């Protein structure tokens, strides 16, 4: 895939994150503004209740995908920009980041879906 | 007269990490570039740890144990710093995207004295990022430290 396409996807993922991470932060850190009790939000009952709602499943799955892509592509950009590294090392970094991304995606998706399906 | 050898032996202008952190006496946007990357790396590191921690939500005893662990010592302070870093990263990211696509840039003028700098046309956005970050992090801090009592 062209580098400019990957960069545009990075920006697009950031834009989507503004929405889904905004919802997550809104609930977890500024929930008092919308009537959510900050002292209750991390209890097991509260977490379990959110896990069972389709809305939060969609939000968390979307957040998982875009956050992993945005973060790992950002890390790749920093690594590639830092030094004049050769093509072999670039391919190795690409492979490691793709593997890490898929690994964390499957783990996170399993936790989200298992929480929803009970 | 002896002339110096001008042929580069390795990578010319390669400064590595020091060049990334300190490139010279540039404006505030250059310092925000560093801050954007530092907060991005911090939030990425937190994200990966957060995924492992929230994977414990399927079992009540595991969840309560891990919540007890992450609420000890200085970890809540670290969590709040990640929140602050993420808010700054997001708001500054909006500014960067708008600059990237040219929305905040002033039209370049002819180089007639006194010179104007087109890039400074977006300086108000820099201050807006600071103000909005302070407002959101301030309210988040109130909920985090006062309401929840971390």
What does this structure look like?
The complex is a heterodimer of chains A (118) and B (150). With 118 residues, chain A is mainly α. Chain A has a single domain, classed as Up-down Bundle (3 helical TM bundles of succinate and fumarate reductases). Chain A has four helices and no strands. Chain A has helices at residues 3-28, 44-51, 54-82, 87-117. Chain B is mostly helical. Chain B has a single domain (27-147), classed as 3 helical TM bundles of succinate and fumarate reductases, CATH 1.20.1300.10. The radius of gyration of chain B is 22 Å and the shape is extended. The longest helix of chain B is centred in the first third of the chain and has 27 residues, at 28-54. Chain B is 63% helix and 0% strand. The chains are: A mainly alpha (118), B mainly alpha (150). At the A-B interface, helix 1, helix 2, helix 3 and helix 4 of A face helix 1, helix 2, helix 3, helix 4 and helix 5 of B.
Question: What's this entry about, in short?
Answer:
The complex is a heterodimer of chains A (118) and B (150). Chain A is an all-alpha fold and 118 residues long.
Give me the oligomer status: heterodimer
Indicate the radius of gyration of chain B in whole angstroms.
Answer: 22 Å
What is the CATH third-level topology name of chain B? 3 helical TM bundles of succinate and fumarate reductases
Model regions low in confidence, pLDDT < 50 over at least 5 residues of chain B: none
Say which CATH homologous superfamily of chain B is assigned: Fumarate reductase/succinate dehydrogenase, transmembrane subunit
Computed CA radius of gyration of chain A, to the nearest angstrom = 17 Å
- Just name the CATH architecture of chain B: Up-down Bundle
Quote the beta fraction of chain B: under 5%
Tell me the series of helices and strands of chain B, N- to C-terminal.
HHHHH
| CATH class bucket of chain A | Mainly Alpha
């Amino acid at each position: 895939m062209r580098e400019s396409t990957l960069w545009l996807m990075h920006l697009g993922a950031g834009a989507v994150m503004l929405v889904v991470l905004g919802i997550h932060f809104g609930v977890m850190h500024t929930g008092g503004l919308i009537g959510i009790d900050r002292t209750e939000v991390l209890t097991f009952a509260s977490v379990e209740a959110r896990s069972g709602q389709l809305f939060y499943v969609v939000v968390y799955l979307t957040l998982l995908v875009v956050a992993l892509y945005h973060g790992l592509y950002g890390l790749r950009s920093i690594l590639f920009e830092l030094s004049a590294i050769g093509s072999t090392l670039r391919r190795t970094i690409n492979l490691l980041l793709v593997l890490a991304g898929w690994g964390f995606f499957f783990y996170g998706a399993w936790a989200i879906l298992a929480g929803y399906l009970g | 007269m002896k002339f110096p050898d001008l042929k580069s032996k390795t990578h010319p202008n390669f400064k590595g990490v020091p060049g990334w952190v300190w490139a010279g006496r540039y404006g505030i946007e250059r310092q925000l570039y560093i801050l954007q990357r530092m907060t991005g790396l911090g939030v990425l590191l937190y994200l990966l740890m957060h995924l492992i921690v929230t994977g414990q939500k399927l079992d009540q005893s595991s969840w309560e144990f891990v919540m007890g662990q992450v609420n000890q010592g200085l970890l809540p302070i670290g969590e709040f710093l990640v929140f602050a870093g993420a808010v700054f990263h997001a708001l500054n990211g909006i500014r960067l995207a708008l600059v990237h696509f040219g929305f905040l840039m002033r039209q370049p003028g002819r180089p007639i004295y006194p010179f104007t700098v087109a890039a400074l046309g977006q300086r108000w956005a820099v201050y807006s990022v600071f103000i909005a970050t302070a407002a959101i992090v301030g309210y988040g801090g109130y909920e985090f430290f006062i309401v929840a009592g971390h």
